[in-house]
Amino acid sequence: MTQKTDHPIRLALSEDRADIYFARTKTVLEKEGLNPVVTMEIFPNGEGIICGVKEVLNLLGTVLPPAAEVWALGEGEPMQAKEIVLRITAPYQSFGLYETAILGILAHESGWATAARECVEAAGGIPVVSFGARHVHPDVSARMEYAAVVGGCVGCATPAGAELAGLDPTGTIPHAMILIFGDTVEATLAFDRHMPPEVNRIALVDTFKDEAEESLRVAAALGERLWGVRLDTPAERGRVTPDLVKEVRARLDQAGYQRVKIVVSGGIDPPRIRLFRERGAPVDAFGIGSAISGAPPIDFTGDIKAIEGKPIAKRGRIPGITPNPRLKRAKLT
Amino acid sequence: MTQKTDHPIRLALSEDRADIYFARTKTVLEKEGLNPVVTMEIFPNGEGIICGVKEVLNLLGTVLPPAAEVWALGEGEPMQAKEIVLRITAPYQSFGLYETAILGILAHESGWATAARECVEAAGGIPVVSFGARHVHPDVSARMEYAAVVGGCVGCATPAGAELAGLDPTGTIPHAMILIFGDTVEATLAFDRHMPPEVNRIALVDTFKDEAEESLRVAAALGERLWGVRLDTPAERGRVTPDLVKEVRARLDQAGYQRVKIVVSGGIDPPRIRLFRERGAPVDAFGIGSAISGAPPIDFTGDIKAIEGKPIAKRGRIPGITPNPRLKRAKLT
Amino acid sequence: MTQKTDHPIRLALSEDRADIYFARTKTVLEKEGLNPVVTMEIFPNGEGIICGVKEVLNLLGTVLPPAAEVWALGEGEPMQAKEIVLRITAPYQSFGLYETAILGILAHESGWATAARECVEAAGGIPVVSFGARHVHPDVSARMEYAAVVGGCVGCATPAGAELAGLDPTGTIPHAMILIFGDTVEATLAFDRHMPPEVNRIALVDTFKDEAEESLRVAAALGERLWGVRLDTPAERGRVTPDLVKEVRARLDQAGYQRVKIVVSGGIDPPRIRLFRERGAPVDAFGIGSAISGAPPIDFTGDIKAIEGKPIAKRGRIPGITPNPRLKRAKLT
Amino acid sequence: MTQKTDHPIRLALSEDRADIYFARTKTVLEKEGLNPVVTMEIFPNGEGIICGVKEVLNLLGTVLPPAAEVWALGEGEPMQAKEIVLRITAPYQSFGLYETAILGILAHESGWATAARECVEAAGGIPVVSFGARHVHPDVSARMEYAAVVGGCVGCATPAGAELAGLDPTGTIPHAMILIFGDTVEATLAFDRHMPPEVNRIALVDTFKDEAEESLRVAAALGERLWGVRLDTPAERGRVTPDLVKEVRARLDQAGYQRVKIVVSGGIDPPRIRLFRERGAPVDAFGIGSAISGAPPIDFTGDIKAIEGKPIAKRGRIPGITPNPRLKRAKLT
Amino acid sequence: MTQKTDHPIRLALSEDRADIYFARTKTVLEKEGLNPVVTMEIFPNGEGIICGVKEVLNLLGTVLPPAAEVWALGEGEPMQAKEIVLRITAPYQSFGLYETAILGILAHESGWATAARECVEAAGGIPVVSFGARHVHPDVSARMEYAAVVGGCVGCATPAGAELAGLDPTGTIPHAMILIFGDTVEATLAFDRHMPPEVNRIALVDTFKDEAEESLRVAAALGERLWGVRLDTPAERGRVTPDLVKEVRARLDQAGYQRVKIVVSGGIDPPRIRLFRERGAPVDAFGIGSAISGAPPIDFTGDIKAIEGKPIAKRGRIPGITPNPRLKRAKLT
Amino acid sequence: MTQKTDHPIRLALSEDRADIYFARTKTVLEKEGLNPVVTMEIFPNGEGIICGVKEVLNLLGTVLPPAAEVWALGEGEPMQAKEIVLRITAPYQSFGLYETAILGILAHESGWATAARECVEAAGGIPVVSFGARHVHPDVSARMEYAAVVGGCVGCATPAGAELAGLDPTGTIPHAMILIFGDTVEATLAFDRHMPPEVNRIALVDTFKDEAEESLRVAAALGERLWGVRLDTPAERGRVTPDLVKEVRARLDQAGYQRVKIVVSGGIDPPRIRLFRERGAPVDAFGIGSAISGAPPIDFTGDIKAIEGKPIAKRGRIPGITPNPRLKRAKLT
Known about the structure:
The first copy, chain A, has about 325 residues and is of the alpha/beta class. In chain A, about 40% of the residues lie in helices and about 15% in strands.
């Protein structure tokens, strides 16, 4: 993973990822001999959970001179709209070029973390797992999953994302494997034969037969070794409903499988999570896809508020430093 | 750039970017000695512009055996909801692991290209430039800008994105540089002194003074060398309005600067583009940020529809190949 | 059935079904020696399909003297709001008491016929069957089904209703019977063994297993003798969707059962009928419940407009006969 | 009335009022020699006031064998959506045929009782009378009025309905009688001459003249014998408004007729009842028509939940008995 | 009338009706010796009918020097939002003080004229009369009525307004007079006795009795001399409805009074006018109150666009004269 | 001012400002010899602040005989819809003609006072000044400003209005003067040179330059003599926003001009006032235009409720005096 955590910084440091006008500015300032110490303040346009601070500090640690001063909120803290979350005081040429990268890291990762937090809060204690890597480009899927965990998810699906987040990856069985075996029970038994014991056996029960029927079949076939079932009913069959969860729970219990858990996925978002809870559906875990991974970025803005200690600002902004007692001085390495 | 266009494939090929259950499936199938030739069909859940096909075919070219057959829509073509856009027939083990990457590439890039197309269609012939790299993680900002150009943008802001798209990068002057010079005219004159002649001189005119006043000042200072002005009025000053554009145009014209163009940016999206056009505001180019880069991904789904030539499908899907005469056979290399 | 068509008239003729004030009025008029020839006009407060005319004329034929004159629209004709649909000229005492019954017959039956017509028009040629006897009191269920057929339904479920409408009753197999047999195929085979050949074999396929799976099982078991399947998926499983119909159709066709028809029921109403048609779902017949049987009555009003040939009316109404060339003179027997 | 309360049971027992598939099921089960003891549970799809329980128990008493067990809510009790209101344990053949009738009785009568309750609750203590027999078929008008009284109405208009409900019928004077007399005062005086003293004299005051003027005229003519006036202003004259009631009250009081009551009718429903109360209109009673009699039935569903004591259910329902401590064991006779 | 048309100008010329800052400006400019020739352009913020032009030109004729140039739209012409309706070129001190008065005259009168036009257009040829003097201060009621006639009304109620508009005043009989006589017929007969023959006899028929009844009574009493009836039913009686008009028309016609016209008033506005027409109510004239007299003023703005022939403007406006070929050169006297 | 306060009464007394039917009524009553003592009650159709009472009592004092009795609410008191605000008992001929004027005075002035009160309440203690004379006819602009002060405004702009209200007029500097001087600072300095010291120096800062820049320029130029700045940003520049006020305040404070106040104007209405307060914008005063002067009149109605002491009323109203303990006996002079 060393290789992976290093690489985005290397890329971000590359000037070809910066808006071209920052490179041109650097050229002009160098030729004019201008490199004042400036204070830049960064704030989001909406409220949420900040994420990406560690990656940004990593980047700044690589480029700023020792005398530079950086104050920031902590990774995963809540932030208000317009609240200053990061303040950099340093010679402009040392970091001006990286404004695009800094804002982009915070925008994208905070968007994901904030969406994850909304799901987690809606779930009120029921574990939430991020399953949405398939909706984002593979170059950022690990970042997305890391942000989802910062936002409160207890698991994610890709090894790269799990490693960034310090977890083991989570997964069940894909529809493809069941189709190849031609029967859910056969596929689940094969999975059970070949997977190490520490991997939970979670059967996906909506491929060929009604979910309730299939749940009872796999429970009978795997016995004690079945950890749970996943309901992922497609929209064409009405998606997973609170009543379906209640019925599967009741039928499993009536057959003596109280121990088998129920994981729910497929188009799950905060309103639907609340619906499951209001209707009293006994869900043991939610798998969330695009409600987290498709969340919009939260825009961040960077403003120069002082030059050589003198307050300044463009029209529309108030010159000088905006106090925020929640900021902590960052140690750059 | 060669290095960069290669690299995402390399990463996507890495199994740590795949949902873990695909790796586990591969293990189980290998141990069971199962590797049937399957046909997988991929379709979007919404309509739009498809983007990422080239990158996906590049990936498939690396992993599929020669006998495999792939059919796809062309990069940038329109697609309908549920339309089959990609069909792969190959031994499952050769590509099953890459389903996460394939879907993620298409989802993210098609989301951006579709949003760009909406802006371009709203603009009705007025050029649209993508300025939104700052809202996405730097690891995918170049992919976003490439997709924006596929969707119809005539320019983008980062060198990496521009290279992917086969263009030169586009930019003006950042507020930071004007603040450091302390005067818009001074900053623009310095830019003019040091930039090569092929770079357009576009003054940003909302930093210190009223936009109309500042436009006349820079036009007087740069004379023939001024290509245009950019209006980027902040929300605190009411954003750029159609009336502002009309007035700046009129005042420039009255002073003899008919030749100076007007670029509009700041919170621009399709409804606001339409407003500018309905009100007859003489905009020469739009700079778009989060309306493109913050667009949600378009979900894609991959379904196995045949195994060894025999139609199959999970519940909710129709077994067998779905005809789509728009697909073309792809040549993998 | 003679007995049944007689009986409601007998009841309606009974004064205990009339609003008490009509009986009191009769008493007062008799004691005052008043029995003028009046003209009463009856109109609906909303538009729709008129139904109940035959039953009303039957009633009037029993009570009116030979000199009375009655004009009416024909059973099942369209009517506008406020259009005169029935005009009675007769001595008031001969029919005044039956105003409650006359208005009630028209209100209730026209409400059902109008709702049926809306379903039939939404279905655009696909046959519609009334299955909603279970939502109305058994004393009027046959009247409701008769009205549904007047409104355009091609079938109904109870023998009494079917007899009134001149049809054979229509039905499939109830969930109760399948539950008792414990298997859909077993139940359907038993049905097939014991029913006369003229009864269509229609299997209900959502009781135990997924509808697509069960459809293929019963088709295989009954072969040529299976007329069709009925999809009646409960709300807890997402109700019948257009995609479900398309998939069952496709799977039946792929297995060679093109001949097996698909009947759709369960919460069907005009908006959902239109949805099935817009999405191109190949439905062969709709079974409608409360969208017809639970339809609100259409209020009718009876106004005296002339007394002994002299125009009169209460406040709010225009005295005298309202011309309506669509009315036809009724022959009372 | 003995005759009348018997007759609907007789009809409901007739198999021609059952959905045909129940008769066919009976035939099949007989031929297969199947007659298991089943438990059927019945529940409504919406909340309200249950009505029809007595009639259903009457029916079941006629058909069930002595060993059968029936549990039910009491007539007129509140019920929740999906709450079990009736549970029958008996050999299936003994009652399966009557499912249509049982559900229809409960659906239609509970719909009316629930609508009546809404009116009564809106009226907050002001008496409510059901006047809507004219909107339903005469075969069920008495059932409707019985249900309205179960829902809380203090009176109803037909002798048959009143007898079922154990009341005397309530009525005023119809417009027809006033039109025949040609003057409201003349008609009311004639009514007064010929009606027995226990019948309240309630004058209908909107036929020929303004309501306030007419109220004073009848009060002067009948003196102490006038119980009240009924305002039934037609829509063409703006219906009865709170201001009209207040004015008529004030004018009656100013003339010394404080004792004369005001009954309001004509398109009255819960929102309009609330309006009268919010505006402080001194209404003494409301006459309600289609807001009760045109209420939609409340759908009920019957599910077999156990066969020979073993839990079972169709897909979407939970097998086995659903506990409901509010049910009471019914004594069948 | 000379006195009246003179007087508002006299007042407007008085500096105490001007915003105080215009007087102060005059003082400062005089002390500084500044009195440039300026061009002021005046435009409305919304579209409508311009009114007040004559009064404004009258005022300008009194104060401007002979060399001044004024261009204007004609009284009663349609105007677009932002269209220049008045252009004054003159020494600033000669008219600057009157900006408040000029804008106020145009704003208030154009607001009334525009509202009148909307009523007139809704009425589609049925005459419209302004009856709303009672909603505005008596100092401007004549101006309001003049504007209503400019907007298309065929009559108005006060002699002063009628004189300004060049008409005779229009009126019926007030409720007060009928109350004093104690009977509508008595009051109308007295009116008939004492009014000169050229005054139309229009009876107000909603004071004591139902409108239909009263209409027939006055028609019988006045015979040929009754020109029409006015329906002005109060809100407490449901206001005038299309059905009421139709019924009164029918009853008058049936009694042989086809010649008697029907005037409708009471809360009439464009939506209600359209309702009467859509429902086919035979209205002969509408009396309009606050829908015209309570109309909001249309804001006007005056901008200096040139000083001594040189284009100038404040921020937000385009310097120099805005061409409008619809303007005509005004002859000031 | 004596002349001015007298004149509207003189006009209102003139019969040419009355609806013509009142003059005709007077003629008829005189010829019939009828002049009963009547009681007329006047009430508004909506709630608000009553204004115009003094002017009405002035008028009545001129025309009523000594024995007349008048009860009224006090000027500026709150009133409810339908509450009696004025009760006149006098011979009808002495005041009947002035009903139009009395209702018009109350309607127009109460409309303005009520709108002013809404602004004042929204402002929660921040002073509100009426600047809207330019939206009403100059004949009533003083009345409008008087009413605005009755409603709670602390100032108004015309000398005539201020005199009626007992205040000094309030004003800043018009755009016209700044345009003539060609520079905001030059114009403000000239104003300062020639105005007496008791006039506040308030600079209008949106004419040529950005408001923040211009504020600092005038503060530097006038020093201690500058009382405040007025922000009146046009819609074309986004109007005044809470952020603009905050920024101007911050920049003035940073430069040491804490003492300079900020006046906000331009399209201000209660919702926008609340927005400024919710966002914490440090506004020192609001200038209100059409939100007060363009307010709709509040309709008033006058009803005769007794004649010679005997209760009477037209249909829809309750005869006799309506008690209102808030009324006070008025002393007429």
